[in-house]
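Before we proceed, please read the two lines closing this message. Report back on whether the structure tokens fit the sequence:
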Amino acid sequence: MARFFWESNINPFTITAYSTHFSFKKVSMFLLESLLVLTVVFWISAGIAECVMTTKAELSLGPAVRVGFGFFISLVYFAAACLFLSIQQAWFFGLILLMLYAYGNRYAFLKGDKRFFQHFIGTYIYTFLIFLLGSLIFFLPLIIANNYGPFTEGGGDISIYADSAKYLQSHHLTVLGMKSNYLSQLFNNIKEVISPKSFAERWPLFDSQLVNPPAAEYANYRVIMHRVMNYFDDTPYQIYSFLTGTTNYPVYFGIQSFIYVSILAGIWYFFRIFNKKTAILAVLVMGNSYGILSVFYNMYSMQAICLAISALFLSALPRIRITSWAGFRVFGCSIIYTWLSYPHFLSVILPLLMASFFLHQKDFETQVIQKKYSLFMQISTVFFLALCIFVVIFGSEFSIRFIKLLISGIFDQHAHLYLNDSVPIKSFQWFSFIFGLLSQQHFEPFVKVSPSVIHIIHWGVLTGMVCFLLGFLIMMKVFLNKGLSFQYKNFYFFIYLSVVFVVLIQLYVGRSSLYFQAKSAQNVLICFYTALLLPMGVGVLTLKDSLQIRYLLNLFFIVLTLFIASLGSARFIYIYKLALGYDRGSILESSYFFEAKKVKQNDPQALVLFEPRKSADLYISIQPFFGMKMLQTRSLSLQYESFDKDKYVDHPVFPSDFIAFHDIAHIWTLSTECQGEVSLFHGPGCTWKAEKLFLQQKPKLLLFADDYERHFGQKQLLLPNNKKSMTVSYLRNGSAMVFVPPNILSKIEVVMQPIDKDSYSQMVREITERIKKNEFGKNIKMVRSESSLILTYQLPKDTNPTLKMIARYSGEYWLSVKMNNSELS
């Protein structure tokens, strides 16, 4: 069978939305499962913090900060262990390691309180409730839409993080794709980590049924087996894969909400040192920044994790000395995971650590340990350090490669060809990135920006600039006035200089393309907001000693309130647009998962033809069909992979190329049915519906393309003796098939017209060549008109259903299909 492939980006013609009429009965298990995941992550991370972070310095950290660092300590362990163990085995040995450490350190983490669990719950329960509340803010698009399911603003990296973690967990694999069902395989897995086999040596081990479409999980299988992606990107979602059901989307979004709240918690505890009012304003700035939130909604998981690390670092810097064991647990583990997963972010967080040298912390390392138990703690510590060293040595390949590619991309003058031309520096769009109002995906060509949003951006940028200038004046007056003195004065001044330096360097380095501009601005948003807000905290400490600072601070509060209002307005608009399914955003309704379950139960051999509404649907729709056959009909590029001369070769293919004769009895279509019209406050209710093609009583038109829009509209095609308009569909690099039920004598008339009339001769040549190759079968007649082609098929009655290829063209074209003089849908 000839193999072809297709690619596509956004479906520009489809806008989907959802009803916003709320009903508690509609709250699906998705939100509840996501909150359950957050709950488990929180309490496990809290338990790790209580067992491990027992010095006086670490105990001085806020509960939410301790929970955050407990999570990152576990990340480093699992990142190392899963190089040669399955996630199930990693949990088994991890629990043993933690119990050894806890037993050896028990008098320290009990803190003299025999009623440990009562103390433990009492310490963290209030913080846990704050995390739950914060997670509801994270899930606000679902609550507004009253539509509960996985969602994205358009980014598709969830298909790497969540889907790969799901596959690894389900098949008991290491991150290198090695089987790890038994301990006897441990030696071979460690050997593979230290001295990996070449691709040519591994190719015979590939499962030929999984490496190519129509296997639903083929893309993730390739990612894992080819080892082309960072091994550690999906580590957070592997850890809690034991909470996985049919899909692990709740695991992904539950952990994402945990990370988001951790950012707010880190900022709260950093600014709480000054006073509660300062901390509240700081959290309002961070919480209303759609620049930060869009990192999560566009599935940039590693960037989101590193933003959380930078926020938690700020809160720990005044309390933890980096040259200590506490510093290793708090800073060292986070730095290791950053290096493994998002290495260039070290240029953001490492300068912050230098500020700790301006502190004078004494006796923070006092730890109550009974000597007779310390041996267990030492044994577990040695094992943990060995794992850290192991993963840094043998897990840094991708980090080194990524840094090289990043440097070449930054200084490559032609980078904009792939990452879009940079926007002018000092433009309002550029400043909107810096101030965290919006990011690149919120501007043209990705979306159409309304005049009201432009006004909000202008107002936000102007008020943000005034805030920054007022803050700079406050800092200069405080630190140049030797009469104003307070604890940690030099430390805060160095923090201010550090974050300003980091912001300036990152923005300068990332100026070469639009992508780098936007990502660099998002990378330093925590630093930038710290530079913006730190003068407010410092000013509060010196308020009583300087009348000038008092006046500047009052003016700062007024302008900051206006800036927060601008941030909140932009955030509300884009959250609402995501909730209603505007632009590229999508929420996958719960009906999709019910229909997937129905298909699985009724036909285990099903081949599902999935018609996404827009490209965003592709990224959050695959897992329910793991283990089955599934083809996306549009908005996705397919590649058929083969092996040739020690390397794999990709061949472009169409979804229709994978449909064989024996599949007809098992083909299902999965698409949406929407009712109502889009308005400002509600959209049509959309429901997914799966139908078995074999059981259809009416003919059906099936489309496959890089991009298509069924029933695009009425258009007058130039045909002989026909001036009437006809219903046309739009296709780009696509094909069409017709399903004909049994016992129907049919005449099919296909009209094809290139959108670019200059491409007509190319269409004629290509279709003629396909007819010669018998791609459309026999009994076909082609007639040429002024700018259109008419293909006519005569199909005799058949006692079996028929699936007929009727059109295929590599360019953009209009398509109209009639069967027995009736337009076909």
About this structure: Confidence is low (pLDDT under 50) at residues 1-26, 361-372. The radius of gyration is 29 Å.
